[in-house]
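Lines hold sequence, tokenised fold; shown next:
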Amino acid sequence: MNFYLTILNTARGAFFVAIAATFFLGSSLFAEEAIERSLNEVIINADFRGGSAQLSPSSLTVVSNADLQNRAAQHLEDVLNLAPNVNIAAGASRGRFFQVRGIGERSQFKEPLDSSVGLVVDGIDFSNLGLAGGIYDVEQVEILRGPQGTSFGSNAMAGLINIQSSAPTEEFEGRVDLGAGNYGSKTVGVVASGAISDDLLGRVSISKNTGDGYIENDFLNRDDTNNIDELFARVKLNWVVSDELSFDITAIYIDADNGYNAFSLENSRNTRSDEPGHDRQESSALSVLAIWDGSDSYTLETQVTAEESNLEYGFDWDWSDFDTVGVRGFENNARDRQAKSVDLRFLSKLGSEILGGASWVAGLYGYDREVDLSYSEDADYYGAWTDGLTSSFDSSRYAAYGQLDWALDDQWLLSLGTRFEHFENNYFDSFGVVGDIADDLIGGKLSLQYRVDDNVMVYGALSRGYKTGGLNTDAYGKALVSGDADTIALLSQQLTYEGEAALNYELGLKGSYLEDAVTLNLTAFYIDRQNMQAKLALEISSGNWTSYRDNVEGSDNYGVELEAAWQVTDQFRVFTALGILETQLGGLVVLDLNDEPLDQAGRDQAHAPAYQFNLGAAYKFMDHYSLTVQMDGKDSFYFSNSHNQQSSAYELLHAKLAYQQGPLTLSLWGRNLTDQDYDVRGFYFGNNPNNGWITESYTQLGEPRVFGLSGKYDF
């Protein structure tokens, strides 16, 4: 297949294959030394009952707290390259949207949007709110690939990212973190945890990240127009009321006031924006999980969440100091979001099996989210619409779900889960666009596991995920303001688009070898994207373009995912992850910027690199020192389905040297040590009057070489 040839015909791929082959073939030479050494069992939370990641019949990556510290990570975007077949789209101060196996959104401006890849933090749904991905005092990040149609529904058609923070402890403990690096970056964090009373445990964490960013604004003579200024605070309580009743309470506060000035006409880190943008999020969220264990037949879990966010995303879309007619423009999108949910779940106990010995889970779920947008534009751009816009979008979902698990014998486990969901999306705005859409959706998973022995499991799974239909409010609103009768008629017919489904076929192997010194997970998958939601471009009036979504058939995604780790000695560990992905668009025909049809059928889908890898080693020496070195690699990928501009392939080198003496840890770290330029977002249009408005590719560069010193003191 073409994507395998791509791997083998590049120096990058050849290098990686050689290293990986050496790693696996060499394992037999150290078999005797590996006895008595093992990798700790990893427990995942993004499951109905929790359990070992090695026994879960799905492809997933668990990024531990140690992994987060080895990357000196402040945000989720700093660690996603550890997971195979996971990509991220920037277009803001942080990566806001995620793609799993080539599926996921890449941007949001004025239109309402539902997510294909969910983001959950301590049980609270923060999907589409990428700035919520702070990872201070986080126990682990769970990245689930493939549809999560039974457990999470329409926000997780392609996968789910679940951030689980550290839990309160019985014994008092605390931590202070301080750090500083180049580009003016500074970090500070404090944690305190322990028993408040005999039946109440608590944990508090607060962190602050600041930095100037990597952009030089030559017009304003400033180096902080793409700055980072983020505060994260969390309080967790565990209250054991009685032997039968307990509560887990989590309160989260986020205040991010970041700059956004990431694009330039020269595709460099030097801009001339006269009106730099911003990327702000202030969120308050609460989760209350009540666990009642008073029945002999089942446990009842009831989780109630509430989240309120004020978002503001603004940018200078001419990326310059031009101040002539037909050139300049700045827009601001301010959203007020309120969401609440309730999840009522019954889990069977031993002895209450049904239907021939099946343990069971049954639940009811309700979710409501209201988003009010206030859009303003200061523009003079070919007569583009310059009036303000206000809109309101209310999305409600109600679901019933269940799962049955049959232990057929000591080796075979059969699981069947399903979820029925009803959604209603209601929208209206100040331009007169009104839209209501409702539908019933169904998803689920069928899996069969076989325990070869205590250390090896193989599985096959068929799962179906889904995503709600939506409304092309932005395109229709622009047509009402400045379009002709034919364009208005066309977009009136395209006001709504249907829901999408993903049918996922998966085969996997999970094993540990050499007395658990080696773990190896391998997955092959095929996804049939049904009614794929694809963006198309349309010119409303001369120079005034918009995009809208439509459904296309015939799209599919398939590939392989490999993760392995080997504790070679007590001091030396190596690890690797590899994702290979082939995608193709179905019957998609778009208009290029010359209004000519462009047939994209059979082309790779956007933000779906043909390969990704992570390769690393960790070594402890001289009792108190440790060194971790990692390399990430990613193939080129298309920025959009509507044009054929691509990123470049790249490899990034990271390292961390740490010294630990008792409660004190000092670390010298660096990311992208070779200062590789690479792209994280791209657009294609004419935006520069100095070259006659020639259509060009404009890209946002990722993080350059960064380094710093951090200290941690545990008490």
Summary: The longest strand covers residues 358-379.
